[in-house]
Amino acid sequence: MSLHIEMEQAGDMAVLQCAGRMVRTEALSLLKDAVTGLPPMRVIVLDLSEVTLLGAGGLGMLVFLHNWACANSIQLKLVNPSRWVRGMLELTGLTSVLNISSVNDVIQIFCNSDRAVGNAERAAA
């Protein structure tokens, strides 16, 4: 199975749910294009719960996306990595570099994002 990505946007936050294998060039290009092609966002969440295999290229792409997000003042959060993905991130030491968040962290960010949008709309009225 190749990589499949579903995306949802809410305000200045996007959630990309990834499913499948992050190993082949085509899959990694799909992920890169999905993330870097988004309109300006404050937070991008990659849900990795359904990723079944993460190769060296996938690790490299996650680091690339982390660096790209930092350069563009975007928070990139990896959420709910599958056991395989978490094992690879721990084995390579990338858990200390990449921002791995819990679902509760993302819910808090989402709630704050909605509150900020509501406050801005009220202020503009």
Summed up, the helix count is 4
Structural class: alpha/beta
What is the CATH domain class?
A: Alpha Beta
Give the full name of the CATH homologous superfamily.
Answer: STAS domain
Total tally of structural domains = 1
Which shape, going by the Cα principal axes? Answer: globular
Radius of gyration: 15 Å
| Beta-strand content | 25-35%
Average pLDDT: 86
Spans where pLDDT lies below 50 across 5 or more residues: none
CATH-derived architecture: 2-Layer Sandwich
The major β-sheet equals: 5 strands, mixed
From the 3D structure, determine the CATH topology: Transcription Regulator spoIIAA
Q: SSE order, as H and E?
A: EEHEHEHEH
Helix content: 40-55%
Strand order of the largest sheet: 1-2-3-4-5
User: First CA to last CA: what distance?
Assistant: 49 Å
Overall strand count: 5
Structure description:
The protein is an alpha/beta fold. It has one domain: Transcription Regulator spoIIAA (2-Layer Sandwich), CATH 3.30.750. The chain is built from four helices and five strands. Strands 1-2-3-4-5 form a five-stranded mixed sheet, with helices on both faces. Helix 1 (25-36) runs parallel beside helix 2 (56-71). The longest helix is centred in the last third of the chain and has 22 residues, at 103-124. The protein is globular, with a radius of gyration of 15 Å. The N and C termini lie far apart (49 Å).
